Amino acid sequence: MALTKTAHTLVASTTKTAASNGTPTRSTPLGLQTSNGGILTTKITNGGTGPTTPCEVRVLIAHNSSTPSAGSAGTDWKTLDRINGGTTASTAMESWWLIDDSVMALEVEFDGNTGQDVTIEAYFSELVY
Q1: Mapped to the 3 state alphabet, what secondary structure does the chain carry?
Q2: Digit-coded pLDDT (tens) for 7-34
């Protein structure tokens, strides 16, 4: 079989404002029911003044045969991992996850920073055989 690689922008580089704490910036759910997995990368960049409380990235997966609506961890979405970007000024926290072919749906959300804005982004490279 031929290998197909598809790039997905889950969260384009954008500002996560401190004022929006409590309202996650969330990707559109990505259905992976016919996918062979791929690699997810995320980045949180603190500004010249670091946030008082760090921004956190949460990688969520679902075990549903059809892709559920966007949402936080709960009935459909389960937390695969969560990492925060720290509070040090002018630093970036980059992370990556290999997403197994058993994952049926993927979603990423960012939230938690207070005091200062941060820059966030998430991308997924999908493999299909």
Answers
A1: CCCEEEEEEEEEEEEECHHHCCCCEECCCEECCCCCCEEEEEEEEECCCCCCECCEEEEEEECCCCCCCCCCCCCCEEEEEEEECCCCCCCEEEEEEEECCCCCEEEEEEECCECCCEEEEEEEEEEEC
A2: 999 999 999 999 999 999 999 999 999 9
